[in-house]
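Hi C.,

You asked whether I'd gotten around to modeling the 306-residue construct. I have! Everything is below, sequence then structure, no commentary in between.
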Amino acid sequence: MMENSGYLGHIRIKSDLLRQCLSEFIGTLILVLFGDSILAVVILGKIGSAGAVAVPLGWGLGLMIGIAVSGGVSGGHLNPAVTIAFATVGKFKWRKIPAFLASQYLGGFAAAALVFFVYEGAFENFDGGFRSVIGENATAHIFATYPQEFVHTGNGLIDQILGTFLLMIAISAIIDDKNMNIAQGLQPLLIGLSLTAIINCFGFNCQASLNPARDLSPRIFTAMAGWGIEVFSFRNYNWFWVPVIGPHIGAVIGVWIYRLMIELHWPADSYDFDQSVNNFKGSAFGSLERDFNVEMKNVEVTDAKQ
């Protein structure tokens, strides 16, 4: 394929960082667009209990598609917590962090705006134009995460740390070639399913944000689009920071736990690793092979007698 294709070849971006930022922007937009849209369908459509299945699956598929679109260019972080966590273990350059985070937050904001405008009529039908954060007709939680009444701030923070810790452990293992050596084309699917599983298990308390760009950017949009300052002043300004700080803490802990307990301990000599694999194969299949040989000998003896 020719590098330049007609007049489009002249607009090809040559800066690696700019291409990566565009990739993170569109990938995060896709993730949040899918996630917020499925929440809009469930809440505005009053789907009920079916949402317990639809919402985690929608977010997981959104992450899968977002990584599939952006992964080959930027790595498909789509999450500020993931980007900074990778930087702490030397897998990402610190100087790129501001550009990546800006792209991710802008992608989340654009996605929230798109969801709002696509479902504007549904919002009007649901709440009559009265945008509320709490109450029977609350719709702010379509865009950002809010806790159950019985979940206090500390509990919510632990919830966010634990959920993002699990997500980061899963991501680290899935992309580690020395572990299960998962094919690159399958990695978006498995990471998306990991998110689905975590939301299923830890979405009850406070909607399992696990991603500051998925929460803070849409929250800012709702403040501008009619919900007002209450999206931040909720619980006397003692909540909005939880889905931002919690994921960062959890992701850093997760990436370091994987590094210290798994990644650092692969045999330095590939021969040692091959030997351990061969020993496993021998123990697992050796007895089967012996049984097969014995059986074949018995057959041969029987045939000879006949």
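If it helps when you're writing up: The chain has a mean pLDDT of 90.

Thanks,
B.
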